[in-house]
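Q: What structure does this chain adopt?
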Amino acid sequence: MITSPSFFDSYKSQISHLLFNESQPVHVIVIKTENMDYHNKTYYEEKYQSNFIEQPISTRYASKEIIFHTRVQLFFERYYDLDSLDRRETDENIKEGVKACEPGDGLMISIQEMIDEKFHNLYHRFGQVVQLLKASPEFVEIEDTVLVIKNLINHYSAILADANTQLDCFWGLTLTKPIADIIATAYLDFFKSKLSMYQVDEAKQSMTVNFQNTDNFKIKWLGGQVDLVELMVELQRKGWINRLDEISLRKSAELLDRCFDLSASQIRARSKVADNIYTLLKGEYNERKERQYKFDKSGYNKNFDTIKILGFGK
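A:
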């Protein structure tokens, strides 16, 4: 079976239900870091790879609570801020957000975004994930991809069958066993789908898939990327579109990148537009644990806050 980008949506919905279940709230422990020294770009790229691209294999004893080390948030935010033009200013905002991190919906959204990031990379960077697996101590010198996948399937199946064990999905972030089991199940089903593709019958190997090139159908956006995000958020605030984080901020960023030609707003040719939009959509959390965007800050000249005068809405 050929997988699609929506493969993980049902698993993400299950996880969201557990994270935001008011009738059975998850107990969360936040461990705050004191060391916020800045390191070089390679350091954060390596941290990102180890936590969000490398496939988790290790296990731990089943947990009934979430334990969140704020260093994970610090590394994650700094990774997406590496190409920022005003990095010194944005890093101060990142550090303030890390210091203010407390249990609550804001933290749950951050955890959900990290889980989404893991799923996103498994789908879109599958080749890299496999190469990193083959280079890991568990699979070193095993070049057969099918053999690696079969072993992963057996490994995840064994974890799910053990009531006292769970997959250790992240370093610096311990999830509850029910959440970790949903992630392990998603991995199990994903690798089973990949295995079926590798083992397709000879008669079916001539299958042809035609993809329509939609690049010519993009809407040319002539403003800045922050302007587009401001417009989307303003439409969301007025209730004219669904919440952008309803499924995933990452997916919303990718959809905007596919719908709009944002080449006119690219400062660096090599920068990834979807990553830039995702960073802008995430914003920051203020002292009231509310999401605050760049254009919400004092002194910013908004473009769409008076959108009602154009005759849209009530």
